[in-house]
Write a structure and sequence with these properties.
Helix content is about 70%, strand content about 0%. By secondary structure, the chain is mainly alpha-helical. It has one domain. The longest helix has 30 residues. It is found in: Cell membrane; Membrane. It comes from Bifidobacterium vespertilionis.
């Protein structure tokens, strides 16, 4: 069970880093912090609609994996299985 806990913790770290990267890759919608740091200047240089949809799907999949692993780790800890 210790190996399972270590594997799940490694998956959480990788998913967290990947989720952060994927969220930062999204195109800014404007009017927020992205415009303050120059995001408004590159509105036409953004990704296409298909690429943005695929990025959204990948972000949701990684987020669901992250949530599932967090819940699994919490349940294993609560029931003292680890």
């Amino acid at each position: 069970m210790v190996a399972l806990k270590i594997a799940l913790e490694i998956i959480v770290v990788i998913a967290s880093l990947l989720l952060t990267l994927l969220i930062l890759m999204h195109k800014g919608k404007g009017g927020g912090l992205s415009d303050m740091f120059g995001g408004g200047l590159t509105q036409n240089a953004g990704s296409s609609g298909v690429a943005e949809k695929n990025l959204n799907r990948l972000t949701v999949i990684v987020a669901l994996i992250w949530v599932a692993v967090i819940i699994t780790l919490g349940l294993l800890t609560k029931f003292s299985l680890i």
